[in-house]
Write a structure and sequence with these properties.
heterodimer; A: 513 residues; alpha+beta; Uridine Diphospho-n-acetylenolpyruvylglucosamine Reductase, domain 2; Uridine Diphospho-n-acetylenolpyruvylglucosamine Reductase, domain 3; Alpha-Beta Plaits; 4 domains; eight-stranded antiparallel sheet; five-stranded antiparallel sheet; 19 helices; globular; B: 388 residues; 12 helices
Chain lengths: 513, 388
């Protein structure tokens, strides 16, 4: 068939089209906000509205930044109707808003724009239904990750994704961020465990995406919604898949003389066809600090350690653990300690879960980076991270979800000594390094406002345009958590997609730490 | 009816050009194994025939990147050399089903119990929108939350949003030690038996229930070591016995035969009609009873295979009045909150029997997604849910 003339000129629309909250800003936010407040005062209980600046301060930040943004209004939602009322009021007044769970996110996803409305769902804590025979839990978004497991524990079931904040983070936030955790090597991420989401759409309607079944005809909107960082609507109900508890769990702490040797062992475990529940890696600096604050003694003077956990049927776990140990030995492991009992297992895990507390003993300030590389290149990449740190004159210590290739370099610095810019530059250089090795700028912390300006190093302009079109399909007015995930000129300083040297441009363009 | 014009661009850019320039509606086709799933004949076919090959296989990382027109069979051959596989066992692989086609249909087989569908394995795709924008989403590492997850949006979209041209997947190690266990089990006993298996720590990779005649559960055990496989098979049989159900571990050839039988039902033969029913897993007895009654009433021969833990059922219908039977089942499933869609459509199934049934929840947003990603409505217009 002969080629026909172009049906449409191929003009590239701006990645983010002008949205009405620009108008809102130019018209003056206070009168618009006043409109929202008045309208909601008629519909909600007085104690559901917070407009005192001091009280709102906590809602202006999340785990990403200690600096709080000036919030316009906080709404404490108790039920879906409260969320709907708030979204409609914001829509009418043209005020941007953001949903918030426990505020534990680490990429600024739940940080409002200055003057925006924060819709807190962490009071929506009902577990609506537990259906053990169908491996199903139906819960409100404010239920914590750990409470999902608690709700099904007596049926010998559990909810698999386990971010380290699981005792406080909410399932609604997990859905927004597609939360991971140590065990996603074997069990996958939030997206693998969410069957459906009831969403208050950015137009104030209610839609169920997916449902309570494993498949529903039509586009997988649930798949797009999970991990969209609160930009496509607000989840008010979530249907989750839970799993039978594994009958056996074995945990080992294995130390190595170098990060490279530990990295090689990880690659060889995977190459041998073993899929442990998780493989975590820590370097010497963080191991010592964690040992110090927890009192958990380290087996030897390790330069790096792996925590390997296998779970499943008893025989499979025993066979896998023996194979893991054999591989580690031949890759030069030092001491190998297999937990004797549950208490011992918890001791090993304390080393890992205390890492982010331990790091505060190492430097006045710390920046947690989140990047992913192909698993087999982990050792080499960690060496490069060390080189980048030396060049920057800063210290970096590493906590790694090694089985996933997901690294969390902790950049240590002293803001009072003027090292903040250097630390930001180093963190950005690490992101660029991950992308150059075929990886990603974020494995589980999300893009949020933190990395929106880095998106063009990973995605072409056309890719970002297509993502924005999907966003527009959900949110035509652009009021739902704006300036997150996708780069905008205001946030990033110039039209997205025109980046040449992102590092220089980023400097000063993003509020961070 | 005249044969459709078939366009076979050589590469991704050629595909994008075609989509940008074309003025008539088109249908994207891989190997054409699911041609008889749709109603009517397309005028123009955009074929992925030349978009073939493995772009990258990193065995150490457990990742493969393939072009959409690559057959699953060839992909598995490449992976098997390194003791790996793309953990999916859909029907029609022997007929050349392509990765792009299986992805777009989100089709799968019995082992989706352990591994999910391609939706769960996809790491990233290069997609082309209906108006010819080439976009990448995700990546090729096994953990990644950067940007919107458009890969999953295209999975199961049946080519109505453009097409996926290149796909990256996480692959799994082959677990070579296998057992097949057959358990005599009426539909009403499936729930208690599954529960007994959970309590006993049995983790089958597939658990299919067959009916109506010879009501049977068939389990597949797959383990890395022989010892673990033996132990799991033993536990499974004990769980059956504890429920008063007779169980036997099949020898290799009988095991293969029973899974081939299952595949033949999932696939159907030319002339058959097959339907997909999705329900809450615990509704299996009602689903089975309902469809058997509806088919008996309409002189239709029916065989059902259910992925019992998941509540995903496939029925193969032969003879009689399948359309009338489907209408009855649809009414029943609406009451149970389930769904019925047709897959293979036999010649005795008229256009008055819709493929999709009522528009699903979220339909308003689906329509807008379609409009954003295929603004000129070129890609299989009118063929998807709610007439999208």
């Amino acid at each position: 068939m002969a080629r026909q003339p172009l049906g449409l000129p191929r003009t590239s629309p701006p990645v983010v089209s002008p949205r009405c909250w620009d108008t809102w800003q130019s018209l003056g936010m206070s009168s618009a906000l006043e409109g929202v407040r008045r309208r909601l005062a008629d519909l909600l209980e007085p104690e559901q509205l917070i407009s005192d600046e001091l009280e709102m301060e906590a809602y202006g930040r999340d785990g990403f930044s200690k600096n709080s943004v000036a919030v316009g209004l906080v709404v404490l939602a108790r039920q879906r109707e409260d969320v709907t009322a708030t979204v409609l009021a914001c829509l009418e007044a043209g005020v941007p808003y953001v949903a918030r769970g426990a505020g534990t996110g680490v990429s600024g996803g739940a940080r409002p724009l200055p003057g925006a409305v924060v819709i807190s769902v962490d009071g929506m804590t009902n577990v609506n239904e537990v259906a053990p025979a169908n491996l199903l839990v139906d819960a409100e978004p404010g239920v914590t990750n750990a409470a999902i497991t608690e709700a099904v524990a007596r049926d010998h079931l559990y909810y698999a994704p386990d971010p380290s904040s699981k005792s406080v983070c909410t399932i609604g936030g997990n859905v927004a961020e597609n939360a991971g955790g140590a065990h996603c090597l074997k069990y996958g991420f939030t997206t693998h465990h969410v069957l459906g989401v009831e969403v208050v759409t950015p137009e104030g309607g209610t839609e169920v995406l997916g449902g309570d079944l494993v498949e529903v005809p039509g586009y997988d909107l649930r798949g797009v919604f999970v991990g969209s960082e609160g930009t496509l609507g607000i989840a008010t109900r979530v249907w989750l898949r839970v799993l039978p508890c594994p009958s056996t769990v074995r945990t080992a702490l294995i130390d190595f003389r170098s990060l490279e040797a530990a990295g090689t062992a990880v690659a060889n475990i995977i190459a041998a066809g073993i899929v442990p529940a998780c493989i975590e890696m820590m370097d010497e600096v963080i191991l010592r600090a964690a040992s110090e604050i927890t009192g958990v003694l380290l087996p030897t003077q390790a330069a790096a350690a792996l925590i390997v956990e296998c779970d499943g049927p008893a025989e499979a776990v025993e066979d896998d653990m023996s194979a893991v140990i054999e591989i580690c030995r031949s890759d030069g492991a030092g001491s190998i300690h297999i937990a004797a009992d549950l208490a011992d297992r918890e001791r090993i895990w304390r080393l890992r879960t205390s890492a982010f507390d331990a790091v505060t003993t190492l430097a006045p300030d710390c920046m947690v980076q989140d990047g992913v590389v192909p698993r087999a290149s982990l050792g080499a990449v960690l060496t490069s991270v060390g080189d980048l740190a030396s060049a920057a004159g800063l210290r970096v210590t590493n906590v790694v979800h090694a089985g996933d290739g997901n690294l969390h370099p902790l950049v240590l610095f002293d803001e009072s000594a003027g090292q903040a810019d250097a630390a930001t530059e180093l963190a950005t250089a690490i992101s660029a390094l991950c992308v150059s090795r075929g990886g990603s700028i974020t494995g589980e912390h999300g893009v949020g406002s933190d990395k929106a300006c880095l998106m063009p190093i990973m995605f072409s302009e056309d890719s970002l345009i297509v993502m924005d079109r999907v966003r527009r399909a959900f949110d035509p007015t652009g009021l739902c958590n704006p300036e997150k995930v996708l780069p905008t000129p205001r946030l990033c300083g110039e039209p997205p997609g025109r980046y040449r040297r992102h590092t220089a441009e980023l400097k000063g363009a993003v509020q961070r730490w | 009816m005249t044969a459709p014009a078939v366009l076979t661009p050589d590469d991704i850019a050629g595909m994008a050009d075609t989509l940008r320039e074309i003025r008539s509606p088109l249908v994207v086709r891989g190997a054409g194994t699911k041609d008889d799933w749709s109603l009517g004949e397309p005028e123009v076919v955009l074929s992925t025939k030349r978009l073939v090959g493995v772009v990258l296989h990193d065995p150490a990382d457990g990742v493969i990147v393939v072009r959409a027109g690559t057959s699953l069979a060839n992909t598995q051959k490449v992976l098997a050399r390194h003791g790996q596989w793309l953990a999916i066992d859909p029907p029609l692989v022997g007929d050349g089903a392509t990765i792009g086609g299986i992805f777009s249909a989100n089709d799968a087989g019995p082992r989706r119990l352990a591994y999910g569908t391609l939706r769960d394995m996809v790491l990233g795709v290069t997609l082309i929108t209906g108006d010819g924008f080439i976009a990448k989403t995700g990546g090729r590492v096994i953990k990644n939350v950067a940007g919107f997850d458009l890969a999953r949006l295209y999975c199961g979209a049946f080519g109505t949003l453009g097409l996926v041209a290149e796909l990256a997947f996480r692959v799994q190690p082959i677990r070579p030690n296998r057992r097949t266990i057959r358990v005599r089990c009426p539909a009403t006993r499936v729930g208690p038996f599954l529960r007994a298996m959970r309590v006993a720590g049995v983790e089958p990779s597939a658990a299919d229930w067959f009916g109506p005649s010879d009501a049977t559960m068939v389990l597949r055990i797959e383990q890395r070591t022989e010892r673990a496989a033996t132990a799991q098979a033993k536990s499974a049989c004990e769980a059956a016995l504890s429920e008063g159900l007779g169980a036997e571990v099949l020898n290799e050839s009988d095991g293969r035969e029973v899974w081939q039988h299952g595949e033949s039902i999932l696939a159907g033969s030319p002339g058959d009609t097959t339907i997909r029913i999705v329900s809450r897993p615990s509704d299996l007895p009602q689903v089975a009873h309902g469809i058997f009654a509806a088919c008996t009433e309409n002189d239709t021969d029916v065989t059902l295979v259910s992925h019992a833990v998941l509540g995903v059922h496939t029925a193969r219908l032969r003879g009689g009045r399948p359309g009338d039977a489907i209408a009855v089942v649809r009414a029943q499933m609406a009451l149970l909150g389930g769904y019925v869609t047709t897959r293979r459509r036999g010649p005795d199934l008229g256009p008055e029997v819709p493929r999709w049934g009522e528009p699903p929840p979220g339909f308003a947003i689906m329509r807008r997604v379609k409009h954003e990603l295929d603004p000129r409505g070129r890609c299989a217009p009118g063929t998807f849910v709610g007439g999208i």
